[in-house]
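Aim 2 progress. For Xyloglucan endotransglucosylase/hydrolase, the working sequence is reproduced below.
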Amino acid sequence: MDISRSLSKRIPFFSLLFLPLFYAAHAEFNIATIPFNKGYYPLFGDNNVVRSSDDKSVNLVLNQYTGSGFKSSDLYNHGFFSAKIKLPSDYTAGIVVAFYTSNGDIFEKTHDELDFEFLGNIRGKRWRFQTNVYGNGSTSRGREERYYLWFDPSKEFHRYSILWTNSNIIFYIDEVPIREIVRSEAMGGDFPSKPMSLYATIWDASNWATSGGKYKVNYKYSPFVAKFTDLALHGCAVDPIQEVLSTSCSQKDDQLKSADYASITPKQRSTMKKFRQKYMYYSYCYDIIRYPIAQPECVIDPVERRQFKDTGRLDFSARRHRHDKRKGQVSRMRTYEDQDED
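Predicted structure tokens for this construct:
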């Protein structure tokens, strides 16, 4: 069977262009998982937090009455936080599914946070999501990036992971790194430094999630179900008000930094660069209206820079111009790009 022809029936053309790239970067991490009751508890919407009989999986449900969420039982001083997630299918506009770390319930004005947020979807359009980083309550300096996925996340499970050490932060989808922030002295307290818990939630964000609030949650398609399995927590559980970290935390930090997901190989770095050039459609680093002087951790890539307007949003007209000699591809690419400008 011609695999490219078979896949083309199920995967959009723009994804086929880069499919070999992502498969080449895929090499499963060595990750130990834990049952729900060993590391988590329901956060809200308890009746909508549905655990499997073996306690290895959990579904989060949103209906017309409430959303739902769960939280790690402990706070962690650095860690690797990971789960395989399958997002709700059908019409999911206005729905946010979030997988993130935070300490906002303890440090209300100086909280840290690392986010994956999936921004709802309308059938036939590409799924969008964002990552964000806050440090020491720096909500006025949100470090968000937005992207398209190269697959349909409602069809099967994919692993989403956040690595957080005292020197860097890496966001992964499966084993593909999509973003890295390297700590620098210039960042100061903007680099997350206080113990955080892991959260997962599903909720109604009709006022902003899909195309800036243009499309709302339609509860005739409810209940909406986000499925989580193969949950992983690797880090040092700590008391958030403990001033001196224990020796065991230093040892666990060393173990964390030696894991296969703690560093990006040259092949992975090449994959990450191509992912960002192809699928990132907003970056705070290129938003010179919002930040006339780029934030200190930003590494300005001249190739990336040419793709963005001064607002940090992808310049679709420039992309179309670059592809105007490839008529067959451009006609298909425009179909997706016109949708995404809504």
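The radius of gyration is 20 Å. This observation will guide construct design in the next reporting period.
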